[in-house]
Write a structure and sequence with these properties.
mainly alpha, single chain, 73% helix, 0% strand
Amino acid sequence: PKVLELLASGAPVVRDAAARALIEGGADVVADIQARREHAGDAEKQRLDRVLAELGGADAFKALLDGLASSDEQTARAAALSVRERVSEADARTKKSYAGAVMKALSKRGERSAPHEAALLKILGWCESIDAVPVLLDVVGDDKRAATVRQEAVIALRFALASGVADKAVVDALLDVAAGVDASLARTAVDTV
């Protein structure tokens, strides 16, 4: 739709009005947003991601997750933050669905950038899913992954374990990271323990 072009406008009032119009369009605009996002610049991608986050629903959430793959670090972080409120306010069933979608995205084969993976892990943490613990432990224990990615996994563990008790495998993984050479990552692990 023509309104998508207005998201690239230089006038903030016009961009905001376009975003509101797209959100009111509901799930019907998700495919159009995905198509537009493929050719958008970073600033426009951030605006499109915010619209997807506001739309909510399974299709919009999946589109947002898929879009992370082509995002730079700042855009990926902004996209993750844009869904935080929606995920945090979701009921347990919806959070479980969101967590499943994120874990599915994380399990896809292929090369993922560190910002992409970090954004996925950030979102997974907000889902507060105990089912995510094995996935998070794999990331935490993988020395080949970027420190920022591992740090997001450690933080996500805090959320995933918010309603339960950490078992020995979790404590051992965090202690291993805490004894590591990366001071920032070690500090995050210590704070999590």
